[in-house]
Design brief:
Helix 5 crosses helix 6, helix 6 packs across helix 7 and helix 8 crosses helix 9. The longest helix has 44 residues. By secondary structure, this protein is of the alpha/beta class. Helix content is 41%, strand content 11%.
Amino acid sequence: MAKDENFPVAVRPEGRGWEGGSPTDKGDGGPENITGGGPNGMADGGPEDVMGGGPKGKSPDTRPGKKAKRTGRTRFRSKARRNHKDSLFCRLFSDKENALSLYNALTGSSYTEADGLEIVTLEDAVYLSRKNDCAVCVQSSLALFEQQSSWNPNMPLRGLLYFAAEYEGWLAKNKKYVYTGNLVKIPSPAYFVLYNGTERQEEKMELRLSDAFEKPSEGYEWTAHVVNVNAGHNVGILSRCQLLGEYADFIADVRQEQAAGKPLATAVDAAVDTCIRKGGKLADFMRKHKAEVKRMYWFEYDAKLHDEVLQEEAFENGLVEGQERDLRNLMAKLSMTVEQAMDILDIPAEEREKYAARLREDTTMATAGV
């Protein structure tokens, strides 16, 4: 599914772990310290350290106040944000009443006691730069709602990683141990991806982890339930959750204003004013937090650009690594000099020093035994 505005939400019943409930409470056992010791105890990296360890499987230091050490030589041409910022979607549905309404709309349930719902959103579990997920637990069900505005077929894998971290925290908080002879009962998972991008997509679909398997492996599956929540789609769901419907209308209004030729800032201003004139739950939020809404929407827009830069950079890095590998092979197998190998591969003159420096660095590290 999407890369740009990914927002999950998780819910679980009150009194069964993750004491504290509020996603912003610090030090009280809420989601920010779900795996050990407050917000500074969380591994704050991307997918490589989602479970707290590094890419080589090293155990993290989970003492309070300790951060997982970053590894690798990732470079960013845009400044990556290490402080998380809530998306508008996440901010709206981190409220218990709103989260319960969304849960009921998507699952067809009719729970009314919001106090029985717990917000259990993880802090920076999977995503690089922004807070875009909301998770709740209710009636022994752990549900993750993630909003996406661009298509990403890897959502089943991302969801699996997220739930693994959620269950790890749940086991620790409830003092459940898997290395015993007794079956440990856990909340049932439910993973919904709420798509509101501009590409045409079906009303509903299922993305399966098994589609990513390099070879079939019978009996292993993980499913992401994708729901198109653009205005005019899945009208039943949007009507059952009033706030979700109004949010869909707001996004549609922003896009309509942009289509009319207005720059993003002006389009957001106009859409916010339209929302307030219409009235409703979202209008109440807009009146109280108008400036904040603009900042959050700008952040989401900026985050999309950031993701596009990351994708472009990953592509370029792949080309560089491939060229570097070919250079080493030519030099080793045909006894060529660096310049001769670069001539064969037609590497542009302005890029040759970059490749030469990378080869020298690799040679130095190999000599040092790194």
